[in-house]
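To the team - adenosine-5'-triphosphate complex, inputs and output below.
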Amino acid sequence: MSSLVLNPIRSDVGEAAMTDTIDSTQTKPAEQESAALAPWRYSAWSIPPAARRILRGTSLSVIGILLFMLLWQATANNIDTSLGKFPGPIQVISQVQNMADEYQREQQRRVDFYARQQTRNDELLRSDPGAEVRIRPYTGRPTFLNQILISLVTVAFGFALAMLVAIPLGIVCGLSETLYNAVNPLIQLFKPVSPLAWLPLVTMLVSALYVSDDPLFEKSFVTSAITVALCCLWPTVINTTVGVASVDKDLINVSRVICLPTHVHIRKIVLPSAIPLIFTGMRLSLATGWMVLIAAEMLAQNPGLGKFIWDEFQNGSSDSLSRIMVAVIVIGFIGLILDKLMLTVQRYISWDKQTVLR
Amino acid sequence: MQAYLEISKVGIEFNTESGKFRALQDVNLKIDQGEFISLIGHSGCGKSTVLNILAGLYQATEGGIILDGKEVNAPSPDRAVVFQNHALLPWLSVYENVELAVKQVFKGHKTRAEMREWIDYNLALVHIEHAKDKRPHEISGGMKQRVGIARCLAMQPKVLLMDEPFGALDALTRAHLQDSLMEIHADLGTTVVMITHDVDEAVLLSDRIVMMSNGPAASVGEILAITLPRPRSRLALAEDPDFVHARQQVLQFLYDKHKFTGAAAA
Ligand SMILES: Nc1ncnc2c1ncn2[C@@H]1O[C@H](COP(=O)(O)OP(=O)(O)OP(=O)(O)O)[C@@H](O)[C@H]1O
Ligand SMILES: [Mg+2]
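Output:
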């Protein structure tokens, strides 16, 4: 219900067409009498139906979340771990405050560092104008925000890498049955492989092949990104293949009669009709990639959210569990936003503005 | 003397899961330039298959087709096809749908401006110029079919192939489109091969009606020449004894020699 309501495409159509019993009776003239008998329906509650539906949707979600929190708090207090009580929502929320303060302090330290460096250099220059001044970059601990950013960049990289392979591969597999038959067993074989299985191999390969004195990227970053790519390749390959293979036969015949050259055929006929499925694949891929990333970062020690969780787990302070919980919620939230982002992109790119995307 | 379009001894066998299926056997037909031919016959007898072979979308197992002195063995804009379900690209506007074909067919022969003019001309021919910036989902079924016809005409085909072009339309829209088609045929003198289930439509539009025998291994059953003078008007013809007689003969063929399945009622 809530996704229906929150969807802007649907809600303006819905105002007229959706079967909402209360609303539809209100618009009927025959019901005007009963409306007069029940003035509260109009005067005090004269919120437009669409707004009311959104309100009801959100209030249901809020109730759901509140219930969940209550349950969580109640059970959490009864669980003792070696790191203290399992954190309930209250502890987690105060932890958020705590981490925000930490971030502030770290920022302050950074500003102070540069200020100190500046004054030192100024003094040096005053005493000896010819002196060589060095400006060192600040190398403090990465903040939580930094770690989120690193995770996002890593997943974006891995995802982009995967798409560069997956979409063209899907298109050729969809176009040529021969190729599909050749590639399909490999897809089926590699699809269920867990990222943890790939990671050691990728690590060794990266160590062996990615050698440079001044690497543009950290090895841990490359390893994580490639592992992400390997795991999020498949949904897009499969969906693109299906999308391309199921282009309407009439349209293909049209293309044959007109004698469109292959590249025009792909651009004008195949891609537009496969776009919805390609995007379905991409959304599944991105979700998989984000999920895989956390595990990859833990093992590859890429300084993102995965490493944050791992380090907290290893440190084992009394705050650790609630800090991990904050990370968990952040991970979920980012996953949600990534999916919404893909939907927005799809809405923008797709020719079909009629279909309700969800 | 060789006809403009000659189908000689065409047969086709499909490989199906339950073995080979012979759909057509020894189909022979000679069509003159500018002639309007209707193919009529029971559902599943192989009309679409004949049309697809003419279009080059299917390969005949034996026999062959010669159009204007050249053998037909692949699809080409020479033989444009109007599909039953319009087959417009939903992501392109009406204009762009026609443009896609025109750009491909007249690449290097027409300038941009000439192409634009040619597309507009063809859209006007089917009376659809007012909707040229609309997408297919924004126009009615009849309009879509008009666009499909415009797209084919814009390719300047030697033969226009139509597979039940008006089958999915209501009677009134169909009548309008039939009139448009008669006008266009009179103006351009295009050779047309049209499949139809509608006996009135066949008699009204055609120079000859080709009645196919039932499958499997279907072939040409009878050919009926319609000599009614053109231009024809549906209202005047409704009472015309020649029209009624021709109509009678086609129905007779469909009822008589074959089990009637109810497809030909108009
Ligand atoms: N690609 C194919 N593979 C196998 N069999 C086919 C194929 N195309 C057609 N057939 C068979 O050939 C026969 C003739 O089919 P066709 O579509 O030409 O009939 P039709 O006369 O156009 O029928 P309708 O009036 O219902 O459109 C049918 O029995 C059909 O099952
Ligand atoms: Mg057919």
